[in-house]
Amino acid sequence: MELFLKGDTANVTAGLELILTKLKVKLTMDGYPIQVKQEKGPLRIVNKSGEGEISFEKPIHFFRAIGIWLENYQKSREFEITETSQFNMSGVMLDASRNAVPTVNEVEKLLVHMALIGLDTLMLYTEDTYEVKEYPYFGYMRGRYTYEELKNCDEYAEKLGIDIIPCIQTLGHLREAIKWNYAAKFKDTDDILLVDEAETYNFLESCLKAASEPFRTNRIHIGMDETFQLGLGKYLEKNGYEHHIDIMNRHLQKVVSITDKLGLKPMIWSDMYYPLFAENNSYMDKTGNIRADIQKGIPNIEFVYWNYYRKEQEVYERDIQNHKRLGSKPIFAGGAWTWNGLAPNYGKAIVTTEAAISACKKTGIEQIFVTLWGDNGAETPFAAAYPILQLFAEHTYQQEVSIEKVSERFKFCSDGHFADFMNLKLLDETPGVMEDNMNSSMTSKVLLYQDILIGLYDENVRGLSLGEHYQRLTDVLENSRKKNPAWESLFDIYAQLARVLTDKAEIGIKLKSAYDNKDYEQLKAILIVLDCIKVNVDSLRRKHRNLWFNTYKSFGWEVIDIRYGGVITRIDSVKYRIQEWIEGRISQIEELEENRLYHDGPWEMADGLVGGNVYHRIVTAGNFSL
């Protein structure tokens, strides 16, 4: 389509070129006329009497509006739509630290998509994947971004009316960064820095400079979450025991003195301050409020309240009110559940988002973002989060949101069928798993990687007919692949994963039964199935590899290669063991002599959970790394 935009277009011209390329629209003097007005107030998207009109306040609003105008023009020649922004900031946090570092090109694609759906902030989460020249081992062989790469991302974002906020860590979550000898003097535990050590703050000043200098904004997220072992390593040896709140406050004050020096405005995750909200704690005064001396010790920062676990709106409302006791409204961070394992957990992502954002609107929260974590290998492609980004975007501009409306907008903005994407959750939300997979069963990851001879999860899936489930799902996902050509490579991977699990999900149970019954014919048949699984796993590896190298820097794929390679190589050894027994060269298969027990590790304590764990706990009952 050709458009003629007239009026207040000066502030959106650069970004408009990027958006219209995605939308396959050209600007011409003979195009359909749209009057553009930049003014305070809600978005207005109108088409009447052969002319369009768009009124917007911020550039990001215009980019959303042009998409809405085109979407509705395709359906109806006349329309008038008004939207009111519910939040001052609504954005995305992209994890670039958990094994996968998106290329600059992919970051730019995400930025264009964010602009089209109206999300105005990208937080780029980099634990050690940015360059700190004073510390050459920081991010070594991890795909770290250069200054120039980050600068290019920021300049691209500026055209689209999007701010990029650097998001780093300045206390914990630094295992990969401080594993090298250069960090020995300022390391408390394996992943936490040593508080009160001068060298720690020299290091952090270099990190803060390097992380912030490429960006226009003076805002920075400095992390500090989940430091549960704070003060319990080298710090304990040097100073004796001290409550983590006191250590946190002192460390935070020192880090904020650096951010003040650099002209930065910091925010932190709030979870390590949760003890301040507990009843009858030592940090509470007689009136039930946080003690004045503790409040005074907390520097002027923004707190980020993260929660993507609960479906009860009242939980979020309570937690938000508790955060306000720290002196300001928190920023809220929800989750797209791209870190469940190999597949996205859409069920949990949707119900937690609906509850959380409703609570944010009710309690007056002004800033929100959705996290795209990549825990334990970043095996789920981050683009699988796009349906949840659409949900966040619609909530950003409307008080009430329906899944039907989200689906309509997703079809236009992402060129995909929302319902087909929802089928991906069935890789993990299988028989035996609770509705919406609220306990985060990683069924497909467990069944792909678990060892066929040892079968740590075989008792967990016995009787669930998961082979039949995955066989049906293979057909469903193949159909989804055909219906979503723009997403063919993504659906191709997941259809292949379902194909693998059709045979592999219960192969260990069948193998153990055939062995116990000395059913040699069945064992010989299993040998043929093992060959089929081996071929299908390698095909899955290659499909996954193609998508990875089109999305991420190369660093990190070696981890995934090794995981797939482990499955393939173990199949070879399984066949060897079976053949040795069938042919009488060994008297028993020791692995199959063992009785199978239910996997009762920490992830399996909840109801409605087939299985969930990190890779090294799936593949062996032994110690994988030592």
From the structure above, extract its key features.
626 residues; alpha/beta; Double Stranded RNA Binding Domain; TIM Barrel; Four Helix Bundle (Hemerythrin (Met), subunit A); 3 domains; 8-stranded parallel beta sheet; 6-stranded mixed beta sheet; 22 helices; 12% strand
Q: Can you describe this structure?
A:
By secondary structure, this protein is α/β, with parallel strands linked by helices. The chain folds into 3 domains: 2-83, 2-Layer Sandwich (Double Stranded RNA Binding Domain); 89-414, Alpha-Beta Barrel (TIM Barrel); 424-618, Up-down Bundle (Four Helix Bundle (Hemerythrin (Met), subunit A)), CATH 1.20.120.670. 45% of the residues lie in helices and 12% in strands. The chain has helices spanning 13-23, 59-75, 104-117, 147-159, 198-212, 234-239, 244-261, 292-297, 313-324, 346-363, 386-397, 403-414, 418-422, 443-449, 458-461, 466-483, 488-504, 507-516, 520-551, 557-582, 590-593, 615-618; strands at 2-7, 26-27, 32-38, 43-48, 51-56, 79-83, 89-95, 121-125, 163-167, 219-221, 265-269, 302-306, 331-335, 367-372. An 8-stranded parallel β-sheet has the order 9-8-7-14-13-12-11-10. Strands 2-1-3-5-4-6 form a 6-stranded mixed β-sheet, covered by helices on one side. A hairpin with a 2-residue loop joins strand 4 and strand 5. Helix 1 packs across helix 3 (104-117). The protein is globular, with a radius of gyration of 26 Å.
